[in-house]
Amino acid sequence: MTAAIETEGLTRRFGARLAVDDLSMTVPERAVYGFLGRNGAGKTTTLKMVLGLLRPTAGRVRVRGLDVARQRMAAARQVGALLEAHGFYGNLTGRENLALTATLLGLGAAEIERVLEVVEMRRDAHRKVAGYSLGMRQRLGLARAMLGAPPVLLLDEPTNGLDPDGIADMRRFLRSLPERTGATVLLSSHLLGEIEQTATHVGVVDDGRLVLEGELARLKADLAPELVLRTGDDTRAVSLLLAQGRSPVAAEAGLTVALKSGEDPDQAAAVITRLLVESGASVFAIGPREQSLEDIYRRVAGFRSSLAEAA
Ligand SMILES: Nc1ncnc2c1ncn2[C@@H]1O[C@H](COP(=O)(O)OP(=O)(O)OP(=O)(O)O)[C@@H](O)[C@H]1O
After folding, report:
1. Is 303's C-beta closer than 6 angstroms to any atom of ligand 1?
2. Which of 167, 187, 221, 274 is 20 to 30 A (C-alpha) from 176?
3. Is the shortest distance between the CB of 55 and ligand 1 below 6 Å?
């Protein structure tokens, strides 16, 4: 199946600064792809190249199989975008602002009403944008991105500046988009939690490079599992576990113990429980620890910093 977005060796220099470095990413159709990275990691620069707004120094981008450099207009028609600067006219209503873009795209009033409905803004569409909250502007930005029902949506930090209620609403909304509209969503964020709660796929960019990519559920499942246990005597439990060649780590939820390669979590839990109980340390609870995107991210970040140290 053709990917919604595919980049190959994408590179962009600004003078001596390598903002995007040989980045090859694949965003499958109908995914909510979380593009995660610290500020300055290269997310916006990548999105601009996908949109054809910025020319790559090297490499290429395909949107639904269309080469952005060679078939720029056809590729652009596949994509709706929400970038940081909204550029709405405050003295016009939400509906009038959308009408400006709709006219450029050759779309009629019915399409404006459709996108207003999708972002649940019909009630406020007659009001001037100057009186809108940031959340309403973000929704209007999304509505504009969806005009003409482009199959791919690029959203740069879509929850930036929203209050907690607005963030929760936006996340719910983005998660439901592929099912509601059939669209593929690429959203950038510097917030782990944001991606974890919204995305089906993730790409982690660090210093211009894609350091990890995949389906979120699979990435989590592939992480080496850990057990977490609560005991009546952690000091004793730690020394007993160390003597068994394990490396317990004190965490908020209790002691965590990494499983050995290929070890069955239930078997390991039984062995550890027996060991501790027979040695007089009570075991209150033991079980596998659910891994989070943060664990994945830390592992990649740790990997990167050890590379930097080695260099
Ligand atoms: N037009 C430009 N001229 C020079 N340097 C630039 C330009 N645009 C981006 N950069 C640099 O490229 C690097 C990547 O920037 P980019 O905006 O893509 O990062 P980002 O991950 O989107 O970060 P943020 O979330 O802060 O926007 C940064 O070091 C930035 O300073």
Report:
1. no
2. 221
3. no
> What's the mean pLDDT in 107-123?
91
16 ligand 1 Cβ < 6 A: no
What number does CATH give the domain 224-290? 3.30.70
Q: Whose CA is nearest to atom 16 of ligand 1?
A: 42
Mean pLDDT of 157-177: 82
Closest approach atom of ligand 1 to CA 208 = 14
**Residue with the two structure tokens 């969806």:** 146
Q: How far is the CA of 306 from the centre of ligand 1 (A)?
A: 24
CATH assignment of 5-214?
3.40.50.300
* Cα–Cα distance list, 1 to 4, 29, 118, 250 (Å): 9, 8, 28, 45
In short, whether 44's Cβ falls inside 6 Å of ligand 1 is yes
Domain ranges of the chain: 5-214, 224-290
Exposed e or buried b per residue across 51-83, where buried means at least 16 C-beta atoms within 10 angstroms of its C-beta: bbebebeebbbbbbebebeebeeebbbbbbbbb
In the chain, the percentage of residues whose pLDDT exceeds 90 is: 56
Q: Is 122 in the pocket of ligand 1 (CB under 6 A)?
A: no
| DSSP three-state, residue 36 | strand
Over 70: is that where the pLDDT of 281 sits?
A: yes
Write down the pTM of the prediction. 0.79
Contact 43 CB / ligand 1 (< 6 Å):
yes
- Rounded Cα–Cα distance for residues 251 and 122 (Å): 48
Residue 85: the pLDDT is 64
Residue 304: pLDDT band (50, 70, 90) is: low
pLDDT band at 309 (very low <50, low <70, confident <90, very high): very low
Q: ipTM value, please give it.
A: 0.94
